[in-house]
């Protein structure tokens, strides 16, 4: 699944010609430049001129295709969604969530952090915020397979027949991952190498105790 | 406990003369103006001139006492820490954490949100970020009493004697509250009125299952 498949509005500047051609090459150069500028100077430092200069393309090319800084932000977030990202598959829910949290923590503590720069940008650009919300929604949807696999392996309680329940996979995933964002991004704590596993383990224990069980919906 | 008691550096512009006097009055007017400007225009819209005009004080007064926008942000955060805030006391850990989460969600979804404006500012001002980190640390420290009371009531497992454990109160509090920030601030989901209670209940279940138990430290 990619970010763009179920998106209702096409990303600004999405290449319309054959992939691998000049259009795709220019887009790759420009988006690389956006990522580098964002990581170095943050959202306030992002300008169409700076991106064009770094990408080595004419600024009218950037204006024509991406229009403005908002268009560049939307497209760089869309490109993150198009990446062939796969959720971890370690054989246990706790292992999967730990691996996911390690990946998240790594993306947040690396300096400069593109992920943190995007979050900062989303406080100031409505366009970037919407694109980012779509990306988050897609990533969490992709991760629901972790919970489905755990249920299939019998790791989590799902009652059958009358009083049937199912797991609210998204709430479980948010419970597992939110502490990592909270500690690193909002509390700005020093990254704790044990946090990814601890947050994962706590969510699994809560899930095993029924914290994310909801009545089964009709037809599910 | 207030934000300033154990702070090693005094807040910029903290009143040095008797409380309730002109100094305190001017500070109150200026900080009210900072909050209003922040909520309306965000961090980028904050200027010493705008704050002075809204507060009805001369801008040299603001420059002399707060120096710049960073100083104003630090002092408005310090003032939040000086508020006589008390953690909830409902008689159960689940009730306390639910009440805490409701208060948090309310502060984040109200428009304009001073809390969200401060978070946005902390991405861009190192001074504001440090002041905010201190405020968060103090608020979580204040809330540890919720966990202590729950242990005293026998709601949570603490093994005695050999193999003694104690609860990592802060990790429990973060697990309970992080999903609310995550959903509202980072995922920008529509506020879910059930989320405060669900996130609280999940953290309590995880705690009851031993998720936040750590070996007791010497002398604790």
Automatic annotation (TrEMBL), chains A, B:
- Which keywords belong to this entry? DNA-binding, Transcription, Transcription regulation
One Pfam family cited in the UniProt record for this chain: TetR_C_11
Transmembrane helix found in the keyword field: no
- The entry's protein name is Putative tetR family transcriptional regulator
Give the top-rank taxon of the lineage listed in the UniProt record for this protein.
Bacteria
List where the protein spans the membrane.
none
Source organism per entry reads Streptomyces lividans 1326
Q: Where is this region: Disordered?
A: 1-23
Q: Which GO terms describe its molecular function?
A: DNA-binding transcription factor activity; transcription cis-regulatory region binding
Q: Which residues bind DNA?
A: 47-66
């Amino acid at each position: 699944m990619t970010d763009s498949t179920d998106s209702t509005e096409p990303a600004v500047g999405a290449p319309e010609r054959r992939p691998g051609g000049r259009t795709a090459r220019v887009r790759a150069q420009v988006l690389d430049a956006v990522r580098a500028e964002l990581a170095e100077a943050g959202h306030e430092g992002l300008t169409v001129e700076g991106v064009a200069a770094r990408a080595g393309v004419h600024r009218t090319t950037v204006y024509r295709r991406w229009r403005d800084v908002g268009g560049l932000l939307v497209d760089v977030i869309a490109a993150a969604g198009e990446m062939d990202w796969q959720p971890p598959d370690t054989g246990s829910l706790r292992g999967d969530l730990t691996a996911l949290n390690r990946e998240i923590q790594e993306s947040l503590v690396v300096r400069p952090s593109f992920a943190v720069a995007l979050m900062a940008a989303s406080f100031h650009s409505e366009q970037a915020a919407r694109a980012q919300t779509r990306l988050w929604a897609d990533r969490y949807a992709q991760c629901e397979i972790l919970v489905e696999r755990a249920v299939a392996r019998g790791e989590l309680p799902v009652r059958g027949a009358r009083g049937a329940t199912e797991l609210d996979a998204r709430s479980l995933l948010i419970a597992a991952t939110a502490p990592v964002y909270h500690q690193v991004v909002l509390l700005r704590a020093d990254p704790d190498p044990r946090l990814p596993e601890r947050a994962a383990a706590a969510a699994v224990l809560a899930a095993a105790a029924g914290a994310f069980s909801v009545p089964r919906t009709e037809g599910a």
